[in-house]
């Protein structure tokens, strides 16, 4: 059995050293991981390889002595790209690299059927409960197949991936996500705001999620964008902010974009203490987790933090904004992305007398 040793670094983060020993057959082999689960998964796969070599009477080979594998291609893709790879994409590729057998296959032996089998296996993954999520995994992996041969001469066949993608789509193993149209009711928002206000009152050091939530609605900003905004990016005289690395189709890494701040966004910002460079100096993952926990506690079903962007955008059209005027707030480069909102009838501001505006400003 492999041994997993937990180590605590100076910054408080954890590392897990997986070590495999087979006396009389090989020198100990080890590798360090950020998570215990991935360390255990790697050790389990590596032990199977080692034990297979021993059972067959072969000398145990180092992985470096074997043919280049898909895992090697993934490693090169993550470490050598001069353009920033998104956090989600990098994490997905590392998961494939460390937890799935396809990563150990030689590049020149991977067939479309192997990719399809991998996608089927994804559906057994805890927490992966939709074909659209499986599509995200497959899409990120396809980038490795596209780049491996021209970049490093690795024999991954791009057409093999394309064939697998067609089959997976045709048979429903992967699919595009359905557009969400979920908007919170004012009653649900009232519950959430009360919940977060009480948490902040009980512990002033707790993230003021009620202010973050209100800002998300009125600014239409994504959670990661909110947490990146700095005081230097804020121009109160022009009622605008510079959103760093805003998502934009066709632009990897995002584009820095100036956006308008409709009322009461500036007032919410002015109510935040200027203690750090960021206006909302919080971790975006923590924002998502706090929101999800609150919805679960309050019994609010099928509501995501990202739905606040949809809510805020819908509000702009209800107030009579045109597509260009709404885009000045949302930051959409293509107005076509906002055409789905043009059916919304002008009916005024549903937040005009919302009592929480005074409390967050």
If you had to describe this structure to a student in words, what would you say it looks like?
This protein has helices at 36-55, 70-80, 87-99, 112-122, 131-152, 158-170, 186-202, 209-219, 223-228, 265-270, 284-298, 307-318, 323-330, 356-360, and strands spanning 3-8, 14-20, 29-33, 234-235, 240-248, 251-260. The chain has 361 residues and is mostly helical. The protein folds into two domains: 3-170, no CATH class; 186-360, hpI Integrase, Chain A (Orthogonal Bundle), CATH 1.10.443.10. A three-stranded antiparallel β-sheet has the order 1-2-3, covered by helices on one side. Strands 4-5-6 form a three-stranded antiparallel β-sheet. Helix 7 packs across helix 11. The longest helix is centred in the middle third of the chain and has 22 residues, at 131-152.
CATH superfamily of the largest domain: Intergrase catalytic core
Q: Roughly how much helix do the residues carry, as a percent range?
A: 40-55%
Secondary-structure content class: mainly alpha
Separation of the first and last Cα atoms: 58 Å
Give the helices and strands as they follow along the chain: EEEHHHHHHHHHEEEHHHHH
Number of helices: 14
| Beta-strand content | 5-15%
* Mean pLDDT level: 89
What is the name of the CATH topology of the largest domain?
hpI Integrase, Chain A
**Low-confidence residue ranges:** none
Rg result: 25 Å
Q: What is the top-level CATH class of the largest domain? A: Mainly Alpha
Number of strands: 6
Total of domains:
2
- Report the major sheet: 3 strands, antiparallel
Q: What CATH architecture of the largest domain do you see?
A: Orthogonal Bundle
> What shape does the CA trace take?
elongated
Strand order in space, largest sheet: 1-2-3
Pfam families: Phage_integrase
Protein name: Integrase
Family: Belongs to the 'phage' integrase family.
Organism: Rhodovulum iodosum
